[in-house]
């Protein structure tokens, strides 16, 4: 069989250059797949938000072995969009791989996903083959328990159990529906078969060899097809959908829910679909925060659908403010038309929650990067006006105060007390503000979620070559990292060991993270995926936070976790939460505030995959109350509708990023 293997490797090179279609980016908080709908779209139709439950983001039994009694001694358990409808539009998924002793996952490729694998049990020999351009170099390695390895998007790869005991691995894939192309099946087992003339020439062998191979694969193919095609269902790439036609004017009256909106017939489109008037008229700022928004989003200008941009007009009363908030799906660029604004945004934990702030005057322009918490306050005694452009047709707004203290149902005060390092009474007081001050919340919701309509995302860049292993020592700053020369690349660039070792959770929150991001695995550069191991002490917690650049999919390895995420203002800050046990899987959509808490009296362990090489973390408490320098207590007092003393007390706490 050595010859056959050799032939396969030689021929695989044929398959090397795939063209990628990336998954669309989300155009709303969530778009849970309606798996029963007859309407065919790219991905799936969305279920109505009111019908969504935590179970749409959940799967159990991921600790149960599948049956590997087949010819290849290998089987897959899927956690793709078909199993977890909440994954729709989020660009990530998970599979559990079971290998019998000496079983193998034969050479295959995922057209739409990079794969990142963690060995839970046993010893695997794994590898991938670079494309023709890189002389079909094989990059391979033996992996043991706790080892992590990356298989770049589109490249042919395999995994084989080289031990005499079963092996188990979990792989995350950067698509809701990664697809699988098993080489042997595709080349020698297609139906109808590829002509043996063509294959004989391609493989430079006698037709008899081809006929022999084809005969083999007709027998084996069925098993492989059953085993492997099941994977085919759903990888994720989270990019904004590119327009696939000149225009797709939103049909705002259609009852069909899709990612974004159904298009109107081109014949019915008029100039008014691209038009809005009255953007010179101030809106009413007679409310508690002295602020209001006029929208020019896809709801107001249907022609914006699929085009990834929108506009808002911001009116500030004297000393009015747009309280701390974040746009899960857009970068914002603001121009001051009148007055004087104090504005700022807070960098993520990775950058020590540094506050970047500035006073802006008429004609000044300022940028607020996607996903980061920011605010604007009028510091003059006359009204101020600004126009902001947002990089999505439906940017979304998450107002921090509303989302954290005013969610429905409320986030447990135990969890918030630990997160904010204060007594539960302070939390109860803050939560009471938001329940009593429904009117304020209402204003904020009306004001802000109107923005929610339509942002465009900047996601990780797509790979433009087989691999671009990060040169972590280069002084040249680019988006991501400079690539190492292909000749200098080794399997270790795609590898990390020790992912089976717990980290130290002896800290205030009883929680710690082990990273497998681009800094730990340079081979992840440009591939849009990464992994973290989460360790929880008994009753430890990962406090409310958000990832500006990634959806997260979590698997519980040990223990019992209470987890949840909060929808944005547009969806009334609804809390979606659930208790997870060993083997359970749960999804946290990109940009939304979420948490995990160990509710057991033993340690808990989970592995999470994230749909970015560098997802970023913004811990809410740290970012809002612990930024350096601090956000003015005037601004926070107004935002949280409490006395400045409460803010000063919160700011005085000692903030540590887990
Ligand atoms: C894979 O495992 C499942 C669950 O154990 C089993 O139902 C299925 O038949 C197996 N498939 C193959 C091809 O062995
Ligand atoms: C591939 O092979 C060609 C011809 O032998 C050589 O010139 C080139 O440097 C090789 N490329 C790599 C990336 O090894």
From TrEMBL:
Principal cellular location given in the protein's record: secreted
Binding site for oxalate: 542, 547, 552
One MF term in the entry's GO annotations: manganese ion binding
Binding site for Mn(2+): 545, 547, 552, 594
The keyword DNA damage belongs to this UniProt entry's keyword annotation: no
Pfam families documented for this protein: Cupin_1
Keyword Transport: no
Secretion signal, residue range per the UniProt entry: 1-21
Domain Cupin type-1: 60-211, 277-428, 497-648
Subcellular location field: Secreted, Extracellular space, Apoplast
Keywords: Apoplast, Disulfide bond, Manganese, Membrane, Metal-binding, Secreted, Signal, Transmembrane, Transmembrane helix
Cystine bridges: 468-483
GO cellular component: apoplast
Transmembrane feature ranges: 217-239
Residue ranges the record marks as coiled coil: none
Protein name: Putative germin-like protein 2-1
Organism: Cinnamomum micranthum f. kanehirae
């Amino acid at each position: 069989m050595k010859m056959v293997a050799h032939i396969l490797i030689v021929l695989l090179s044929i398959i090397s250059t795939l063209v990628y279609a990336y998954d669309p980016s989300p155009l709303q908080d969530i778009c849970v797949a309606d798996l029963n709908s007859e309407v065919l779209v790219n991905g799936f139709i969305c279920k109505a938000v009111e019908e969504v439950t935590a179970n749409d983001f959940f799967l159990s039994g991921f600790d149960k072995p599948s049956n590997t009694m087949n010819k290849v001694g290998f089987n897959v358990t899927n956690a793709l969009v078909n199993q977890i409808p909440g994954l729709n539009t989020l660009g990530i998924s998970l599979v559990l791989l079971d290998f019998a002793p000496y079983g193998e996952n034969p050479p295959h490729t995922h057209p739409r996903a990079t794969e990142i694998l963690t060995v839970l049990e046993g010893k695997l020999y794994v590898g991938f083959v670079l494309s023709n351009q890189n002389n079909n170099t094989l990059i391979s390695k033996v992996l043991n328990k706790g080892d992590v390895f990356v298989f770049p998007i589109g490249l042919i790869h395999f995994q084989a159990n080289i031990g005499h005991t079963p092996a188990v691995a979990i792989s995350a894939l950067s698509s809701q529906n990664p697809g699988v192309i098993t080489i042997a099946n595709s080349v020698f087992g297609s139906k109808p078969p590829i002509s043996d003339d063509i294959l004989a020439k391609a493989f430079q062998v006698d037709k008899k060899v081809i006929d022999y191979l084809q005969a083999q694969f007709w027998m084996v193919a069925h098993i492989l097809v059953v085993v492997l095609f099941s994977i085919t269902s759903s990888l994720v790439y989270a990019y904004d959908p590119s327009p696939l036609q000149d225009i797709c004017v939103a049909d705002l009256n259609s009852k069909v829910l899709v990612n974004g909106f159904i298009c109107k017939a081109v014949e019915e489109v008029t100039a008014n679909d691209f038009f809005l008037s009255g953007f010179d008229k101030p809106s009413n700022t007679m409310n508690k925060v002295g602020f209001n928004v006029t929208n020019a989003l896809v709801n107001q200008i249907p022609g914006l659908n699929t085009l990834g941009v929108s506009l808002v007009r911001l009116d500030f009363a004297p000393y009015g403010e747009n309280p701390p908030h974040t746009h899960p799906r857009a970068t914002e660029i603001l121009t001051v038309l009148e007055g004087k604004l104090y504005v700022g945004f807070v960098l993520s934990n990775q950058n020590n929650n540094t506050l970047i702030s500035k006073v802006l005057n008429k004609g000044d322009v300022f940028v607020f990067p996607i996903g980061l918490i920011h605010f604007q306050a009028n510091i003059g005694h006359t009204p101020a006006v600004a126009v902001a452009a947002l990089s999505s047709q439906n940017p979304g707004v998450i107002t921090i105060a509303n989302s954290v203290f005013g969610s429905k149902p409320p986030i447990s005060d135990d969890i918030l007390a630990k997160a904010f390092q204060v007594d539960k009474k302070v939390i109860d007081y803050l939560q009471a503000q938001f329940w009593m001050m429904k009117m304020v919340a209402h204003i904020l919701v009306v004001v802000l979620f109107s923005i929610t309509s339509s942002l465009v995302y900047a996601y990780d860049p797509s790979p433009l070559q087989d691999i671009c292993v990060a040169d972590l020592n280069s002084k040249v700053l680019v988006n991501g990292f400079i690539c190492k020369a292909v000749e200098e690349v080794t399997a270790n660039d795609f590898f990390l060991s020790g992912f089976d070792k717990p980290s130290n959770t002896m800290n205030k929150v009883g929680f710690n993270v082990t990273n497998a991001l681009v800094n730990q695995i340079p081979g992840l550069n440009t591939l849009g995926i990464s992994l973290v191991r989460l360790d929880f002490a008994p009753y430890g917690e990962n406090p409310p936070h958000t990832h500006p650049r990634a959806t997260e999919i979590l698997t519980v390895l040990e223990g019992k976790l209470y987890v949840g995420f909060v929808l944005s203002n547009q969806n009334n800050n609804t809390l979606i939460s659930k208790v997870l046990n060993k083997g359970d899987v749960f999804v946290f959509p990109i940009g939304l505030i979420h948490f995990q808490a160990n509710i057991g009296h033993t340690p808990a362990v989970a592995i999470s995959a994230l749909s970015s090489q560098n997802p970023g973390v913004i811990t809410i408490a740290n970012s809002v109350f612990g930024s350096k320098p601090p956000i003015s207590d005037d601004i926070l007092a107004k935002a949280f509708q409490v006395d400045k003393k409460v803010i000063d007390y919160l700011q005085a706490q000692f903030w540590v990023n887990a």
